[in-house]
Amino acid sequence: MVKEPDYLFVVNSKRQDVLTEQLDAIDQNYEKEKRDLSTNFGLLHGKRKYLDYKVYPHTGDPENKALILVFFSDRILNLKAEELEMNVLIQNRYQTLPFITEGQNNF
Predict the structure, then answer these.
(1) Domain count, the chain
(2) Does any domain span residue 21?
(3) Which residues contact 80 (CB under 8 A, 6 or more apart)?
(4) Alpha carbon distance 67, 62 (integer Å)
(5) What is the mean pLDDT of the chain?
(6) Residue 105 lies in a domain
(7) 42-58 pLDDT, tens per residue?
(8) pTM for this prediction
(9) Is the pLDDT of residue 105 over 90?
(10) What percent of the chain has pLDDT over 70?
(11) Residue 34 belongs to a domain
């Protein structure tokens, strides 16, 4: 199954390295601090596990512009939702509860 990109950036070709270095730093930060080594669930399958990107030349102006497609793993999205303390609506119970990554709760 092919994952669709979560974001698309159109950048100046001369400055694309700035964005890609920042994306690499984010991936490395989550790799160091958040990685649960016991499971690969929700991780991407390439070199970068939490977020990946692909760079393509812009068809309208390939010498000056580039397209950067960014892919987030399910795990980084879950971790960020928990960090931001997002609430989740439980429809069959008509309740709003805090998002918890591992589904550990005290009901």
Answers:
(1) 1
(2) yes
(3) none
(4) 9
(5) 84
(6) no
(7) 788 888 888 999 999 99
(8) 0.73
(9) no
(10) 87
(11) yes
